[in-house]
Every structure is written in structure tokens, then in C-alpha cells.
Amino acid sequence: MVRLTKIYTKTGDKGDTGLGDGSRVAKYDLRVEAYGTVDEANAVIGLARLHVDEELDGILARIQNDLFDVGADLCTPFEESPKYPPLRLADSKTLELEQEIDRFNADIPSLRSFILPAGNPAATHLHHARTVTRRAERIIVQLKQDQDISQSVLEYMNRLSDLLFVLARHANGKGKDDVLWVPGE
């Protein structure tokens, strides 16, 4: 487990930061941007948890933990024979999200229009989390163009945004209180 005794280290005062393998990169490095945006999505999910029922809170709590695994995976570049095996996101985590999507989507009517990221506070925060998750996914895809990235991380983030969309609709009275887009108005 992680043990933090001193919060500030001053090691990043010159604009670089350490990765999970001990190497150092600029704080604007795309890898840092990727796991930083995952962290931002995690924080927005924390806000959503303040507005959801106990069942959704439990799901979101598990997802927040998973997102730390995603961040750990992203902050450690792939290496042939690492001295210490890094934490990698388990493939089964994406399947868990798919099962939740199917379960919650079963009671929600099909869409006949796009919906606006609105409704009650729970739904609105879940939509916000969805958009930050999508941004993190786009950054991860960009990073994958040049560096090895776990496919399970990419799939997880894609499914997570889908689940957050479904949970937002669920929070909006199982879709009854969705705010529909009216083109041209």
C-alpha cells in the first residue's frame, strides 16, 4: 500500500514529475495529461455521489477506486521486464461496467432525440462526469498513437462514459425527466 508521510517533496518545482517507473517527464507530458484528466473525472464523480441514492453511490465508489487503478496503469510506461510488476487495470473491470449498463438501461425507454446534460442535480453531475471521462478517453487515444497503453484502460474509459450516460438517465426518473434537444430552438 501507499504510505504518504510528507505531502510536499519539492521534486516537481522545476516543472517535471515522476512516473510510476521512476522516470521523470514534463508536467505537460501527454501521459501526465491523461492520468490527470482521469483524476479530474474521479473528482467529478465524487461530486455526483453527493446527489445519488445509496445504490448508485456504491457503484460510483467502486468506479472511483477503479479510476485510481486506471491512473496507476497510465502513469507506469510499459517495460519488458520490470523490477516490480506494475498495477494494470484488470480486463474484468470493463465487463463489470457493461453489466451495470445493461441492468440500468433495461428500464429506460429508447431515445427519440438527443438529450441535454440537464435535469436534476444527480443527473447533471453524472453528465458532467461523462464529459470529463470522454475528454480523458480522447487524451488516452492520442497517447496510444505514440506509446503503449493498456487496451483495457481504453475500453474501460469508453464504457465508463456510456455507464455515466445511462446512470444520468436513470437519475432523471428513468428517462422521464430527460431534457430533450430541440433542434433549431
Question: What does this 3D model show about the protein?
Answer:
α1 runs antiparallel to α2 (54-74), α1 runs antiparallel to α4 and α3 (92-105) packs parallel to α5 (151-171). The chain contains five helices and four strands. The strands form two sheets. The protein has a two-stranded antiparallel sheet. Strands 3-4 form a two-stranded antiparallel sheet. The chain has 185 residues and is mainly α. The protein starts with 15 loop residues before the first strand and ends in a 5-residue tail after the last strand. A hairpin with a 5-residue loop joins β1 and β2 (24-26). Its EC number is 2.5.1.17. Pfam families: Cob_adeno_trans. Belongs to the Cob(I)alamin adenosyltransferase family. GO terms for molecular function: corrinoid adenosyltransferase activity. Pathway: Cofactor biosynthesis; adenosylcobalamin biosynthesis; adenosylcobalamin from cob(II)yrinate a,c-diamide: step 2/7.
What would you report as the Rg, rounded to the nearest angstrom?
18 Å
What is the residue-averaged pLDDT? Answer: 93
**What class do helices, strands and sheet pairing give?**
mainly alpha
Secondary-structure element pattern, one letter each = EEHHHEHHE
Enumerate the spans where pLDDT stays under 50 for 5 or more consecutive residues.
none
Characterize the biggest β-sheet: 2 strands, antiparallel
Global shape: elongated
Helix fraction bin: 40-55%
Q: What is the strand content?
A: 5-15%
The total of beta strands comes to 4
Taking the alpha carbons of the first and last residues, their distance comes to 53 Å
Strand order of the largest sheet: 1-2
DSSP helical segment count:
5
